[in-house]
Amino acid sequence: MARPAAAPENRVRPYFVVGQWKGGGVDIWHVEEAPADPGERADLCDEYREDADNAFGSVEIVYAASPEAAAAQARREARETSERIHRELTRP
User: Fold this and answer.
1) Which of 17, 62, 68, 85 makes a 20 to 30 Å CA pair with 32?
2) pLDDT tens digits, 2-33
3) In sequence order, what DSSP letters do the residues of 5-47 get, joined into one string?
4) Are 76 and 36 contacting, i.e. CB atoms less than 8 angstroms apart?
């Protein structure tokens, strides 16, 4: 009997990245794989957002191949967003 093929470890999937975005970066508190089902993901994200809001944080859904890659992507996106906002604010 043939064994089922294992899911590839490097496939992109959704992750919740919870933390506090500040000054061009992000202080990441938690990274967790999000449910694949969009409805479940939205419900759980709403719950996490409520908890994060109470701690002055936020939750982002990041698509990556691993928790480490999700954290790195969140940091990169925070930096890029901060740089874009800074350019827009300092534009003559």
Assistant:
1) 85
2) 444 444 567 999 999 999 977 767 899 999 99
3) PPPPTT--EEEEEEEEEETTEEEEEEEEEPPSSHHHHHHHHHH
4) no
